[in-house]
Amino acid sequence: METINWGIIGCGDVTEVKSGPGFSKAPNSKIIAVMRRDAAKAEDYAKRHNVAKWYTDANDLINDPEINAIYVATPPLNHEEYTIAALKAGKPVYVEKPMTLNAASAIRMAEAEKKYQTKLTVAHYRRGLPLFIKIKELLDLNTIGDIRFINLEMLQPHQSDLITKTHDNWRVNPEVSGGGLFHDLAPHQLDLMLFFFGKVKTSRGFAGNQAGHYPADDIVSGEMLFENGIIFRGIWCFAVPKEETKDLVEIIGSEGKISFSVFGQYYTVTKNGHQERVEVKAPPHIQQPMIELVNKFFSSQGENPCPASEGIEVMKIIDSFCKKD
User: Fold this and answer.
1) What domains appear along the chain, each with residue ranges and CATH number?
2) In contact, 8 and 35? CB cutoff 8 Å
3) 185 neighbors 108 (Cβ within 8 angstroms)
4) Which H or E run includes 33?
5) In sequence order, what are the residues at sequence separation of 6 or more whose Cβ sits closer than 8 angstroms to the Cβ of residue 112?
6) What is the spatial distance between Cα 54 and Cα 103, in angstroms, rounded to a whole number?
7) Which conformational region is residue 180 in: left (phi greater than 0), alpha (psi within -120 to 50 degrees), or beta?
8) Of 108, 109, 107, 129, which Cα lies nearest the Cα of 119?
9) Which DSSP string do the residues of 218-281 spell out, in sequence order?
10) Chain segment 11-35, per-residue pLDDT in tens
C-alpha cells in the first residue's frame, strides 16, 4: 500500500481528538469513510472532519473498494464481529482497546488474522508515546539496577474526570464493555507492563462491586509474576473520595525507583537520595504516533507495534484478575 485509505467503524468520542485526526495527519494516510449506526451523527462527523463518505452499516464500509484498512473504534462488544469481517474481506485492522470482551474472543480474532492472511494490530497506543519509550529506554539501560517489583495504584472517585462520558454510559455495562472502568483503563497500564517487562508467567486477582453505583466491578486487585522473576501488584478502585485520587506506577529497582502516571505526562527517577522529575508532553492527537507505526506495518515497512498475541495476553490478565469463584 502506498497510501493507507482508512475506514473508521464507530466514529464516537474517542475518534474526535485522540485518534481520528491522526489518520489524516499521519504521512501517506487518509480517511475515506466513517460509519455509525446513527445516520445524523455519522453525517455530522464526516462533515466536521472533512471525510467524503459515511455509512450506517459496517459491512458497507468494509466492502468499499476505496478502503484498504479498517479502524474498529466501537465499544468492545462489537470488536470481534467487525474485526473478523474486515479480515475476511482482506483488509488489515487496527482495533481499539480493550481488544475485545475476553481472552477467548481475542483468540478467535487472532485465528482469523492467520486464516485470512491479513494483519491485525491492537490500539495499545501508549507504546508509541515518547514518555513510555523513554521509560523503556531507562529500564533497558539498567538505570535503577535490577528490577525487583512494580506497584500500581489507580484510585478514582465515582464521577472521575478521567473517564470519557457517554449518554449511555456503556463503559460500566459488562455486556458491552466486558466489565467496568477497570476494563476501560487497565488495558493501557497492563500492556505497558508487558512492553517493559516481557511475558507473564502467572497472574491472579480479586474483583468486586462495593459501592453499587452500576452493575460492573468498581474495585480490582491483581498480581503478576513475570517470567524474568519480576513481581507486579496493582489496585484499581473507582469509588474513593476525590482527595484520594491517584494514578501512580512505581518501578522499584536494586539501585533506585522510577515513578510515573500512565495518564499523565511525567516521570521521576529517584536514586542515591536525588530525585529528578522530567515532563514529557503527549502529542495533541495521542494516537498519532501509534497510527504512524501501524501505517508502516500495514505497508510492509515496519514491524507490528502491538500484535494480536499481546492483546490476548492483556485480556488473559484481565480475565484472571476479575475471575469470579
Assistant:
1) 4-124+286-303 (3.40.50.720), 130-282 (3.30.360.10)
2) yes
3) no
4) strand 29-35
5) 83, 84, 87, 88, 120
6) 32
7) beta
8) 109
9) -EEEEEEEETTS-EEEEEEES-S-GGG-EEEEEEEESS-EEEE-TTSSEEEEEETTEEEEEE-P
10) 988 999 999 999 999 999 999 999 9
Query: CA 210 → CA 158, 165, 215, 217, distances in Å?
Result: 11, 21, 10, 8
Beta strand 246-253 with 219-226: parallel, antiparallel or unpaired? Answer: unpaired
DSSP letter assigned to residue 127: G
Starting at the edge strand found earlier in the chain, the sheet holding 69-72 runs: 53-55, 29-35, 4-9, 69-72, 93-95, 120-122
What number is the average pLDDT over the span 250-277? 97
Q: Summarize the chain as % helix, strand, coil (round to 5).
A: 35, 25, 40
How confident is the model over 90-135, as pLDDT tens digits? 999 999 999 999 999 999 999 999 999 999 999 999 999 999 999 9
Beta bridge partners of 34: 8, 54
Mean pLDDT confidence for 78-91: 98
Half-sphere exposure (Cβ direction) of 40: Cα atoms closer than 13 Å:
0
Q: Residue 295: is its pLDDT beyond 90?
A: yes
* Model-wide pTM > 0.85: yes
